[in-house]
Amino acid sequence: MSSKAVYEESAKLLIYNSICYSKLAKNPLRVVKLGEDVSSVTDEWILHNNLVSKPDVLIKRRGKLGLVFAGFNWADSQKKIKSLLASKFTIGSTCGILDRFLIEPFVPHEQQEEYYLCMYTQRTSNVILFHHAGGVDVGEVDSKAKRFEVSVENIMKSDSGMKAGCSAEQLLQSSLLSGVKCPKRARMLAEFIVELHAVFDKLYFTYLEINPLVICKWNMNAKKINDCNGSSYHIINDTELQDVDNDINEQLYIHILDVAAKLDQCAEHLFTSSLEWSVNGKMLEFPFGFGKTETKEEAYIAKLDARTGASLKLTILNPNGRIWTMSAGGGASVIYADTVCELAEKVKAAGGISQGVKDLANYGEYSGAPSEELTYEYSKTILTLMTTGEPHPDGKVLLIGGGIANFTNIAATFKGIVRALTEFKEQLKRHNIRIFVRRAGPNYQEGLRIMRELGRTIDIPIYVFGPETHMTAIVSMAFGLRQIPPPQVNQIQSSADSLSLYSYNGSGCEHKNSDKSTPMVTNQTLKVSEFSSTITTTATTATSDNNHETIYEEPLFTVKTKCLIWGLQVKAVQSMLDFDYASGRDSPSVAALIYPFSDDHQLTFYWGAKELFLPVYKYMLNAMHKHPDARILVNFASLRVAYDICMEAMEVDCILSSNYKENGILNEHSDTSINHNDGLRVNEAQIKCIAIIAEGIPENMTRRLIQRSRERNILLIGPATVGGLKSGCFKIGNTGGMTDNILASKLYRPGSVAYVSRSGGMSNELNNIISMNSDGVYEGVAIGGDRFPGSTFIDHILRYENNPEIGMIVVLGEVGGVEEYAIIEAVKSGKIKKPIVAWCIGSCGELLSSAANSNNNTDSNNITGGSIQFGHAGACANSLQETATAKNHALASVGIHVPESFDELDLLIRRVFDELVRSCQLIPKPDHPPRNVPMDYAWAKELGLIRRPVSFTSTICDDRGEELLYAGMPISQVIEQDLGIGGVLGLLWFKRRLPEYATKFLELCLIITADHGPAVSGAHNTIVATRAGKDLISSLVSGLLTIGDRFGGALDAAARQFSQAYDADLTPIQFVNQERQASRLIMGIGHRIKSITNPDKRVQLLSNYVHEHFVATPVVDYALEVEKITTNKRPNLILNVDGMIGVAMVDLLRSSGYFTCEEAEEYITIGTLNGLFVLGRSIGFIGHYLDQKRLNQGLYRHPWEDISYMLPKYP
């Protein structure tokens, strides 16, 4: 949700910190929170003024509820706060904790000095509501407040004398302040409203209500008026004010008393480096609504969601509910929740086994291609909740459902779910849980196979269905309203198999495995009954903000359409090219890509089986000038830059090109200029349609894009959209999914049905439903789920109405907004005559709210009523008219075909289409085979259709998932469990987690071997190379190359020699004699400086640690006995560091119990031990490099006197 409420304290501080108006009294604020000692408040102004205290917990009408305590001194206010702080308070069915109180100075004033002011955003303007009589008893202000609209067009222009699109003179000349009889007060209000509106727009407020707004003489900081009892206060009435001079006017102040506000959370990234969205030095907080507390499970999922680019949502509605959902996709999750609630109420009414909407336990979604680990954690959380407590007497149901994915690998996401289900096998049996699965999309066949196999493996009833089954049919099956079909003999086994299973039959495309069962319903079309006297179908509020007339009359997409792609979206581009090829286009629809982070170059794609080069431009202007026939921009830019990209593209004028006539864009009567709304002649924009894919673009930016697109006669699709397509002509990005789904839904050739949907994820489902119940899709557009989409339902429906190739229209709307009422008005006025099948999703919100508010509800605390926030930003009803139920009834009332639920949408589409065919109003489009599109090698490999030898094998590290794995251990756990460098060495070198004493020993080895001064050969080489001007890597390597048997590389050799002697049962003296007789040096024995009389402290430290912590030290002890013999011969033949580390590592590998004998021998043989010296000494070598650089030492030349020159005589 983008529009979110903030605390009153936050709203006031944001205004105070940003507004520039001298007559606004910026009264101090103080918040007392739960757990804070109220008695410790010592603010001077609190102690010496009368106060107002009230809970600041997002409760409306606090005055009516008796929660505002005004005019009390601190002692009395303190008592009031203490009595209520931390107490429970119930409003209707909602119960919450009063956990924070706002304290302000009491502003003494009279009732006639109170005003009502409200501002809110709508599609093309900001609305200002004002009423001259505010306060607790203001009543229904919508019907009596004066209204003034500031258009987005004016806000963008902000001419001289205007601020954010309006001026005080405009307000005074309008009727907004007509109820204020005093000119001087009206002037103050006008000036204040202009300044406040500028702050409203600048700080991305979406709603701001001040009631009351007070104009009075009192000011806490004004001289002479500081009596805390208000005894010296004098009210100035309107008559008196007109008779006094300007000095008295200067003594009037505006006070903001009570505030309710919402801001656009999507704008948060704009203020991360600014103080404008900070409250008391902290970033603005968006709290939960009153009575809504986040459970630990919801908090955990929210934490996972914040860490990933995928989407994970969870709201627990009724922890005792019987039906749990695990839905993929925002639109699909709403539809499943709707269907569960609707069918549960139907079963309950019929006396069946159901508690109605209380059956629905949760709402949530997982989407955006989450990793296996994320889906595992999400599934585990759901299953934990399901299996907590005593089993339900009727058992429970888990619905794992979703539409047809565009790009998510279904099998990959199912792996995490399978893991969780396997772990919960016993709990699932104990709670008698049945599982219903319905999913489709890339690699769905493998995913469904895995699920079927799982059911047999864990002996749990798992019913699995694909796109041949209507999306919500599994809900009907779960409630016993639809028969569960037996498994088909010819189940789809692979992705390749699915491509031949669709055929044309009768009036539409029908899947060979199509589920023909009919829901047990009495009527397929929604009956219009008396819904509510407050709901009308006259869309006055719906259309007052929108001039719903299509502005683009040419065909939006044709077989000649060319587009530009902003962003290196290689997979999406290839998907578009494959669609083009399958559709039989002569040339690709993608003209070029734009990517500002690299110079101009070319990228390789495929046109069928042939390679195709597409240009990539650094600058958009270059791309547009070199490809003037590219009239569509697909904007894949992130939410941070998508606005700027669109604005830049819309400024480029059309360039004449011979290609235009070729592509049917211009005819002989065409002109490159167009008539603007104000009658001015302006040049036509090159881009005629922009698809904005990014989610989370702030609403103010979207509204500016809408305004500019209208001025330039450009159609916007999105933001937050997957795009749109015209079958057989053009598709945007990932719309329509991968090639197998394009072919299955017959999108390679046009049908007769056009659709428009809010949800991008559900657009693929509509492709499937329409193809199975008609002759297929002609065109489909997902306008996006934001509150203000770039184009609306009616923009596209009017295009469809004017297109003779389209026989019927399907609309999938949703709760929130009033765009559907524009369709109703167009039908009533006769602008739309073609049959429409429509359904608005989101009715479960009303059903849940109704259940929670019912008088006989004894368990309301367990049901979250009216607090669901659906996945789309715009899916939130702000009035009864915006509810899904109201919209569906209103649509049906004008003859639009509306099913009783989404569960029956497919049947209704088939019925309407068949009737059109039967009455000869529609002739089904002919089918033809598509071109064969080769499968990408990478995708075929992922599907398991091919295999090839790999180039490398890694058994220690995996970087492909959500986070890096070290020997299977997530990097986050490595850090959280503080494994340290030794622990990391254990994972990456030895492929296991070693005990703490072992990891500490490895770290001790690194510390001891890190450096041994500048004189040793490795350090010397490093220094010489550094002083020769070489870089870090070159200098380090020059030092490392000296490591060998003579310097630092004796660890492996020492370990082998000593362990072999020990294993051969040679006594130390026998070992020494044997090596002497063979003229072999004993590796690890001897030192140039240290001796038995000048022992090496490093060896002593290692020896002490080993004997204190190791399980056994036989080889170390053996080496020390050898040292006694060798030092008798020469004092410096001691066991050196290399030798001690080598033999100690042998004991660690053999005696720790973590390695087999074979593994221990292998690690010694392959050079593992020398790696310790190399790693440790690299630290010192780098230190010497940095030291020489800091000292700025010059080129090293060895002194002559340190060289013995012994040349032969020249004859």
UniProtKB/TrEMBL annotation:
Keywords: ATP-binding, Cytoplasm, Lipid biosynthesis, Lipid metabolism, Magnesium, Metal-binding, Nucleotide-binding, Phosphoprotein, Transferase. Residues 756-846 form the ATP-citrate synthase/succinyl-CoA ligase C-terminal domain. GO terms for molecular function: ATP binding; ATP citrate synthase activity; metal ion binding. SUPFAM superfamilies: Citrate synthase, Glutathione synthetase ATP-binding domain-like, Succinyl-CoA synthetase domains. It is found in: Cytoplasm. The keyword Lyase does not apply. Residues 293-479 form the ATP-citrate synthase citrate-binding domain. PROSITE patterns: SUCCINYL_COA_LIG_1. GO terms for biological process: acetyl-CoA biosynthetic process; fatty acid biosynthetic process. Signal peptide: none annotated. It holds the Pfam family Citrate_bind. Its main location: cytoplasm. Residues 2-217 form the ATP-citrate synthase ATP-grasp domain. CDD domains: CCL_ACL-C. Its EC number is 2.3.3.8. GO terms for cellular component: cytosol. In the N-terminal section; belongs to the succinate/malate CoA ligase beta subunit family. This is ATP citrate synthase.
